[in-house]
């Protein structure tokens, strides 16, 4: 029985400090070019093998990067990536895509951009140079593949129950901007990936929000019956818009030489957020949720280009910084979302399959 050995690396994404941010496993699969004389053995895994490896790492996501000599040499040939949770494949997710982009960006000194091919579409990734010319690549920026949709505000007895004292014993009705029984905005970054956006009044309320451990009744799962054909992955994204003067003195944009125009070049809208799924899971950093929330907030602000910093994961000891640029056109349509993030290497090795 032949054994194939594949290399892997784990990194923490949306941070430059080990053991903060959101962990990600990267598995590198090398393939021979079809027209190459190389004797390199192509490394191919079945869907089942990929799923087993993702389950073995037991992280929120594992990304598989397919490399050839062609996509290393040709800027127009994309790197195919596959994104898996412990139970399923995803068409797109923010932190695996930023992580894959950051990992590949370390491979060249002079190349400034390349492409990733995901199930949701092709993504252009750009290095963001640091303000010091000799600085390593700290951040990458990618244009998120979007099919952005704002759904009608959602109200139901189930959602009220999720916000009530029954599940949020430390919160009062006044802690919610829209109240316990008020409707909440719902938006989708792409079809099949949606978020219920619950705004709280302040960071103290955000810290008191409890993971959804007690939800076992299917009727009390995170609502998605209102989504119709857009039904799929759904979770709660609970957030606070921070005042301009906050205790977070540093910013993800401080060390980046970025030339994006915004409505106010010196103004970053800062947000504190937490993401919850049924069963008690809380995610340290969620690029797709941050992109969705910032898209929705940008539409409320109006036409123009808007810059956001989302700070997530603080309450579970894995502070993450997510940068988001959103462009809203004259028809109040989100026509571009760009995600910014960095990462740090934690460990690497090989797996025998």
UniProtKB/TrEMBL annotation:
Record's InterPro entries? Phenazine_PhzF-like (IPR003719)
| GO molecular function terms listed in the Swiss-Prot or TrEMBL record | isomerase activity
Q: Domain of life here?
A: Eukaryota
User: Short name of one Pfam family for this protein?
Assistant: PhzC-PhzF
GO terms for cellular component: cytoplasm
Protein name, as recorded: Diaminopimelate epimerase-like protein
Query: To which species is this protein native?
Result: Lentinula guzmanii
């Amino acid at each position: 029985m032949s054994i194939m050995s594949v290399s892997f690396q784990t990194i923490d994404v949306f941070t430059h400090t080990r053991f903060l941010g959101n962990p990600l496993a990267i598995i590198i699969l090398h393939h021979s070019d079809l027209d190459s004389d190389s004797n390199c053995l192509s490394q191919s895994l079945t869907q089942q093998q990929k799923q087993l490896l993702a389950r073995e790492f037991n992280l929120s996501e594992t990304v598989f990067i397919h490399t050839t000599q062609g996509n290393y040499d040709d800027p127009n040939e994309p790197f195919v990536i596959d994104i898996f949770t412990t139970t399923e494949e995803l068409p797109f997710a923010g932190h695996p895509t930023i992580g894959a982009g950051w990992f590949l960006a370390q491979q060249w000194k002079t190349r400034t951009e390349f492409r990733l091919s995901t199930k949701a579409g092709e993504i252009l990734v750009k290095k963001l140079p640091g303000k010091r010319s000799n600085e390593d690549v700290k951040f990458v920026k990618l244009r998120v593949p979007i099919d952005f949709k704002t759904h009608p505000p959602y109200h139901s007895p189930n959602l009220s129950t999720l916000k009530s004292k029954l599940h949020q014993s430390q919160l009062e009705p006044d802690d919610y901007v829209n109240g316990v029984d008020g409707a909440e905005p719902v938006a989708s970054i792409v079809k099949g990936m949606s978020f219920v956006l619950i705004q709280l009044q302040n960071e103290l309320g955000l810290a008191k929000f409890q993971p959804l451990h007690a939800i076992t009744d299917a009727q009390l799962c995170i609502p998605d019956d209102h989504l119709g054909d857009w039904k799929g992955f759904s979770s709660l994204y609970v957030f606070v818009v921070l005042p301009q003067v906050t205790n977070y003195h540093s910013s993800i944009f401080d060390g980046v030489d970025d030339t994006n125009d915004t409505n106010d070049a010196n103004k970053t809208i800062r947000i504190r957020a937490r993401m919850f799924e049924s069963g008690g899971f809380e995610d340290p950093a969620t690029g797709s949720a941050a992109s969705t929330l910032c898209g929705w907030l940008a539409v409320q602000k109006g036409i123009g280009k808007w810059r956001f910093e989302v700070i997530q994961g603080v309450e579970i000891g894995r502070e993450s910084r997510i940068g988001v640029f959103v462009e809203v056109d004259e028809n109040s349509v989100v026509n571009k979302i760009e995600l910014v993030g960095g990462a740090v290497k934690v460990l690497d090795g090989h797996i025998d399959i």
